[in-house]
Amino acid sequence: xxxxxxxxxxxxxxxxxxxxxxxxxxxxxxxxxxxxxxxxxxxxxxxxxxxxxxxxxxxxxxxxxxxxxxxxxxxxxxxxxxxxxxxxxxxxxxxxxxxxxxxxxxxxxxxxxxxxxxxxxxxxxxxxxxxxxxxxxxxxxxxxxxxxxxxxxxxxxxxxxxxxxxxxxxxxxxxxxxxxxxxxxxxxxxxxxxxxxxxxxxxxxxxxxxxxxxxxxxxxxxxxxxxxxxxxxxxxxxxxxxxxxxxxxxxxxxxxxxxxxxxxxxxxxxxxxxxxxxxxxxxxxxxxxxxxxxxxxxx
Length: 299
What we know:
- By secondary structure, this protein is mostly helical.
- It contains nine helices and seven strands.
- Among the domains are: 126 residues, Winged helix-like DNA-binding domain superfamily/Winged helix DNA-binding domain (Arc Repressor Mutant, subunit A); 74 residues, Orthogonal Bundle (Arc Repressor Mutant, subunit A), CATH 1.10.10.10.
- The strands form three sheets. A three-stranded antiparallel beta sheet has the order 2-4-3.
- It is elongated and about 80 Å long.
């Protein structure tokens, strides 16, 4: 079995299957079950009719995402197995045909997101164990920012994918219905918009507790920096350039640059100006136990 399969969205049949939500759910459930599975077993595990699941399997087989093994002497019914652990859509945005097909896929993703949103639990019905997190950012991003953000989003996607595999390994042979939705989306704006403040939606558990609006309690405490990194971060926070920091601390510019990269990575920020969100200087004694918070990404 291939670990990854690249699909060409310009193939009409591939595109049709990729936007077929029933087919996509059938593929994922078959992947989670693992091995060769009969239609009846898969249908029962999904809680869906044999005809619907059978049509989805036929479509998946037609684009090479599922392999069918015909009935044999020691196997009275056909069985099905996924041909890869994951698949991706490849194409160049420079090609007009590819742009059109990618637009169809993007619309299907938005449609799935909208469907999942309608299935989320109403706020009035949530309890203390439920967690809600939501933010929307309009940003000014240069090439370096985009590269950094892509890397961070890829890290999130890798975590989500690895979680799905852990669920499969932990509950082999059983398809468990999902109880949370996570949507990750980034796209260029067709028209420029004015910046606006970020309002975080946080409810339930302590995944991302809202900070107090009163300084300095609203500052985040960088608990994961070394003493040297904290020194460099303080100088950056106070407006010093990297060359000035190098001269003041007796370090080479290259070493300061390396410290800055580690600081930004550990704090989840993209530029020195964002250090103002952190308590880098000693706080008064009455703030001996400020809120500790880590946040992926930045606005």
